[in-house]
Amino acid sequence: MLVEVAWEVCNKIGGIYQVLRSKAPAMVDRWRDRYCLIGPYVPSHAALEFEPKRPAGRMARVLTRLAEEGVRAHFGRWLVSGNPRVLLLEHDISIPALDELKYKIWKDFGVDIPTGDPTVDGVISFSEAVRKTIAIWQSALEKPSRRSEPSRLIVHAHEWMGGLAIPMLRRDRVPVTTVFTTHATILGRYMAPNEDNLYEILPKCDPTAQAKHYAIATQHAIERNCARSADVFTTVSPITAEECTHLLGRTPDVILPNGLNMDRYDVGHEVQTLHAEHKQQIHRFVMGHFFPSYSFDLDRTLFMFTSGRFEPGNKGFDLCLDAMARLNTHLKSFDLGVTVVFFIITQRPTRSIHPRALQSRGVLSELEQVCARILREVNQNLVPRAAAGESVKLDDMVSQYWALRYRRIQHAFRTTELPMVTTHAFETDHDEPILSQIRAIRLFNDRNDPVKIVYHPEFISPVNPLWGMDYEQFVRGCHLGVFPSAYEPWGYTPLECIASGVPAITSDLAGFGRYVQGNMPDHDSWGVNVLKRRGRSFNDASADLARWLLAFCRLDRRGRINMRNRVVERAMEFDWHRFGQHYHHAHDLAASVPLKKD
Predict the structure, then answer these.
(1) What residues are paired with 156 via a beta bridge?
(2) Which of 200, 289, 524, 570 is deepest in the core (most CB within 10 A)?
(3) Whose CA is closest to 183, among 482, 589, 485, 492?
(4) How confident is the model at residue 146, as a pLDDT?
(5) What is the pLDDT of residues 476-535, one digit of tens each?
(6) Are 586 and 253 in contact (CB under 8 A)?
(7) Rg value, the chain, Cα
(8) Which pTM was predicted?
């Protein structure tokens, strides 16, 4: 049996959730009901993602034994494609029991665990619950009632938050084989925004000293123990494997690139239709945001975006803005007649959506309603007069009430202020990094600047009153995704663009970019550009990115349509039924490891 353990099972936090969710159908296709995931029980998330089932047979006995050990487990199915089996564990324990666990971890693994860190405390209690679950489950498997039943477990744990059970199981000599995947070393993530040329200095750095410097010594020590204790050690890209070798002291045995369940994105011949449909929704946002101040030709406007966790340096937000300032200068010089609206989509603490943005959107909605009413009135009056052969004036078709209301709303919509560069109100914006850089490059959404900026510090969702659409629809409506990361172990954002038929830019410091470079030499001809950042200065990378963006702006509509079609044609090459083979190899490797018993 294959059991995958992760903190993000039925618990959406970050990229690992996307990996597990999208990979599930490929795992279920191979393992059927010999596949199960284990995660923490988070009631608010489980209510949306988890369907409880009554356990039967061996599973019922395992849950009964677990309850006797003080662990309550919820068995059921994850409500995602593939519908895999899931165990969600309640893992809260008393402070004395937690302290005893910390002492044993220090004694057995040399991991010093401070008090007062709720995340680390939760990881420790969860790992102990997983250890008990696996030990009881393996014990039950050793007594099969039928010859065809499995008799051993392969335990595949993800990240330090889900992997601490691995060294615990090895310490207790539980006869299972283990796989550990780090999706990004925690030390590498902290070092990247603070160290120039991270990968060049890795061979010379002292990981223990660096972990202490960044106050993550406990997390780093747990991750290092997980990597060294696992029978099979894996990561998501060759570039992250370099981190593992130098920071964790072990080179991964297998690389597991991340895919997507492309069937979920496949819309067949409707790619262009959906792009046009969702682009109209973005047009509506742009009209509400910009048109109170001034207008521009939406048919000659390109929508570009970047998105992701708020790590401006790691994610390349800073490079994007610098390149946009350069692009603004290029577009003025070449006078292409093109407007670029560049969106930065991330999550930041804010007070609320800015009242001015809400007011403009509300007035626009009222204007739309008035226009719809006028159109109905014109239609009712125009058709019979046209049929009668009468000559008509359009002014005669509309009642004075609606004509006056139309003009009043037009006046209410106008403002003499420039369009805001952000959609939300911050508690204080003087120390907000994105806004500080926007001020430094002086892109203030001036009428004469062809590049406009919209900083949206909240992930797009249908409940957001400015949008009324979900993130995937927003991606489909855009023309280009821009993700020139300085640190990105894999990078789902450009892959999500490809799945949606949208060209994307990535970098050679992203695992995805490295994969494309190494496996698809023609990538730039069909819609994925890989920006060279490794060993290069920020200014050189920014200049290259600006040139690429200018080249994209020079494409005509037919050229962009052709590029979207080529992107769609290549999307299935990133499907989990292809990338899942790497996971199958890791699991086969684990299955070949001889079991160690007392």
Answers:
(1) 4, 179
(2) 289
(3) 492
(4) 65
(5) 999 999 999 999 999 999 999 999 999 999 999 999 999 999 999 999 999 999 999 999
(6) yes
(7) 28
(8) 0.91
